[in-house]
Amino acid sequence: MTSWLAGIGLALLGYALAVGAMYLGQRSFIYHPSPIPVDARIMRAAGYAPFAVRTADGLDLTAWRRPGEANKPTIVLFHGNAQDASWRIDIAAQAARHGYGIVLATYRGFGGNPGAPSEDGLYADARATLDAAGPGPFVLWGESLGTGVAVMMAAERRVLGVILQSPYTSVAERAGEMMRWLPARALVKDRVDSIARIAPIDAPLLIVHGARDTLIPIDHGRALFAAAKPPKTLLELPDRGHSEMHGPEFEAGVRKFLESLASRATAP
Q1: Cα–Cα distances in angstroms (integers) from residue 23 to residues 54, 78, 195, in the given order
Q2: Rama region for 7: left / alpha / beta (φ>0; ψ in -120 to 50; rest)
Q3: Can you list the residues of the chain whose pLDDT is less than 50?
Q4: Is 107:125 a contact under the CB 8 Å cutoff?
Q5: In what order do the strands lie in the sheet with 74-78?
């Protein structure tokens, strides 16, 4: 009996240690920033120039901008949880080649920027980037982690349109799905609750999701689509995974959506 109780005690201790480690180190699971400064040669070769972003909490960040045609809106791309803005040049090129201006938004802790990422920090960085980028009109494009940032900004500001590429309903929900043996939903600090914020957004919405996405299952994109108000479009790519969102079908869907915004009133 004593050894049986001791075994239970050790199991409970191990579980408690695992829960504690998950809670204390959770941001290292969510964010994987590159601390190396963005290679300016790569950015300039793709037509981008840096611009300064000053956050409300006093951080000096660097974002990147590529000018577009005068009659086209600017697309602000909020990237995912790894690397830096230079890794998204190919994604943004799908719109840039059709004359749209591009802003590759910046985050604290990524690409040589100061600070460490957090949910509130990313929102502060996004607000400051939009303020520094000029009057717009803006189309917000969120990729993976950045979809939560795009949803938050669209809930706060009037924008011309929103593109969500491989989105999640919330970080807490996905954490609960991935770590069913832990009370992950209750422990997550950076919840990024897009499903709770998407309904009031008035801007036209495009959600693009791969049916083979194992990192963020397509059910998340479908749930956000159901919760959003029209006009909205869901583009499901049957043969694409999380990091394979490219190709003619993807580009055609994005281009069709962007062209559909031309008839809407200019957003401030």
Answers
A1: 30, 26, 23
A2: alpha
A3: 12-13, 15, 265-268
A4: yes
A5: 49-54, 60-66, 101-104, 74-78, 138-143, 161-165, 205-210, 232-237
Say whether 140 sits in a helix, a strand or coil: strand
> Of 159, 134, 141, which Cα lies nearest the Cα of 91?
141
Identity of the amino acid at 266: T
DSSP SS3 for 37: coil
Q: Could you write out the DSSP letters of every residue in 38-67? A: P-HHHHHHTT-EEEEEE-TTS-EEEEEEE-
Q: Which residue has the tokens 């037509």?
A: 47
Q: What is the pTM of this model?
A: 0.89
Q: How far apart are CA 254 and CA 200, in angstroms?
A: 23
Q: Are strands 232-237 and 205-210 parallel, antiparallel or unpaired?
A: parallel
pLDDT at 33: 87
pLDDT score at 8: 56
Which single residue is written with the structure tokens 């520094």?
132
Q: Identify the residue whose tokens are 């964010």.
A: 31
The pLDDT of residue 30 is 78
CB atoms within 10 A of CB 188: 24
User: Which tokens sit at 97?
Assistant: 């080649």
Q: Within 71-191, where are the H helices?
A: 89-96, 119-133, 145-156, 171-178, 184-187
Alpha-helix residue ranges (DSSP H) falling in 134-247: 145-156, 171-178, 184-187, 218-227
- Token readout for 185 is 């939903």
